[in-house]
Specification:
Largest sheet: 6 strands, parallel
Structural class: alpha/beta
Strand content: 25-35%
CATH architecture of the largest domain: 3-Layer(aba) Sandwich
Distance between the termini: 19 Å
Number of strands: 11
Strand order of the largest sheet: 2-1-3-4-5-11
CATH superfamily of the largest domain: NAD(P)-binding Rossmann-like Domain
CATH topology of the largest domain: Rossmann fold
Radius of gyration: 19 Å
Shape: elongated
Number of domains: 2
Length: about 250
């Protein structure tokens, strides 16, 4: 049994992770924490502080906030606890904290833990390489009305995947007013918010006389939670390092 703690346990993703960990035969939920008031995380009472949450864990799964993740990875590294984090909207300070922790413990960070999304990343990079500069590239993402960061971490990761094969491209976040003609060096990124959409991502390649579209649509948060559990099983017992879902899926 792998001893697992969950941080951000009252959030939409945290609740789903708690539920699936409790159902798993090879995982044991030993702690749950959220900065909000306790008592709601599935059937497991929330710990009152982060230290108590991590005390008996071997892996912590984090779906909290950028500030929460920064604190968590520092505490986890000090206690020798492996980290799986799906928190999005990280800034330079949070990324630096992840990198520092990864020199001590294994850390998996991915803004989207869906298997399908990581297949999409490969398809998008291959399409960008083969279609070439004659095709303009636009990324459109839509999430529920409560999502606090925009664009999504997945949309940014899609752009990074494209830039890996077409390094001269730059991200343009939305357009308004007299924006002028579209530049050939742009990747347009548009964020839509509304309703209860779990997560939609669409990449459009628009060329002369034709258009190619690649899309991923998530219908349930369980998709991402199952990916997080897969990452937790993978990271347990690994050496220190900073990993992504591509490493997890590679086995």
């Amino acid at each position: 049994m792998i001893a697992v703690a969950v941080v951000g346990a009252l959030g939409r993703m945290g609740r789903e992770v708690v539920r699936l960990v409790e159902q798993a035969d090879d995982l044991a939920l030993v702690g749950a924490f959220d900065r909000l008031a306790a008592s709601e995380a599935a059937r497991t009472p929330l710990a009152r502080d982060l230290g108590a949450t991590l005390a008996h864990a071997r892996v912590v799964i984090d779906f909290s906030s950028p500030e929460g993740t920064r604190d968590l990875v520092t505490r986890a590294a000090a206690l020798g606890v492996a980290v799986v984090s799906g928190t999005t909207g990280l800034g330079p300070d949070e990324r630096a904290a992840l990198e520092a922790a990864s020199r001590i413990v294994p850390v998996v960070h991915a803004p989207n833990m869906s298997v399908g999304v990581h297949v999409l990343l490969g398809l998008v990079a291959e399409a960008a390489r083969k279609l070439g500069p004659e095709f303009d590239i636009e990324v459109v993402e839509m999430h529920h009305r409560h999502k606090v960061d925009a664009p999504s971490g997945t949309a940014l990761r899609i752009a990074e995947s494209i830039q890996g094969v077409r390094p001269g491209l730059r991200a343009v976040h939305g357009r308004s007013g007299a924006a002028g003609p579209r530049g050939g060096d742009e990747i347009g990124i548009l964020a839509l918010r509304g309703g209860d959409v779990v997560g939609d991502h669409q990449v459009l390649f628009a060329g002369p006389g034709e258009r190619v579209e690649i899309a991923h649509r998530a219908s349930s948060r369980e998709t991402f939670a199952r990916g997080a559990l897969r990452a937790a099983r993978w990271v347990h017992g690994r050496p220190a390092g900073l990993f992504g879902m591509a490493d997890v899926l590679a086995g």
